[in-house]
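[User] Once you have settled down, look closely at the record that follows, and write a paragraph about the fold.
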Amino acid sequence: MRTSEKPAGRGPVNAERQTSATTLSGPASRKLPVPPRERKPALAALAVLLILGGALATTLLVLRSGDRVSAIAVSQQIGAGQRFTEAMLREVQIADTGIDYVAWADRAKVAENFARVTLIPGTLLTREMVVSSSRELGPGKAQVGLALKPGQSPGTLERGDRVQVIYVPSKGGSANEEGRVLAQSALVHQVGTSGRGGASGLVTVIVDSSVSPTIVAYASSGEIALAELPGAR
């Protein structure tokens, strides 16, 4: 008895495989071409330069901040137009970051000059603060020493302050001249030790030479008082 083999029919499995193969090989299975990314070498180079420049600046700042130099600072108040002395100056160490300063080695030269503006203690001295001549101590000016009693001057007076020099007549003096201002903006050149009252003592002021004889005459009889002008420094 002869048995004949029949070719395998298309079963469900073979049909599914064929359908899958047809689907994968179709146009839908193909990927669309992706355009190449546009490169910007100029921007990339600029970014690298900026990063390197920032790192270099930071490194330089750190290195420079470690370099200390000796500079001059003011140790006491100095009025505009007053001559410097070495006692008014002190040495400070600062970072050499390019700031304008006067080297400590030049303190003797500074002592030959004058202050352009009023300087308070702790101020770092710069060359713009120093002038070679002074209108306050030049021709036409006079230094007048005053021996003041308690109540005749403020207790806060310092070298470099500005004051009014006022005539205060005694009981027998003329009432018409009471409170007359003899010098509108005199420079306090020196303040001596205070008396027992705390606010009095020796004060040297710089005034116009034209009024200095009058001030001296009134001061000898105790008829002079000083009023501080804080806003005139």
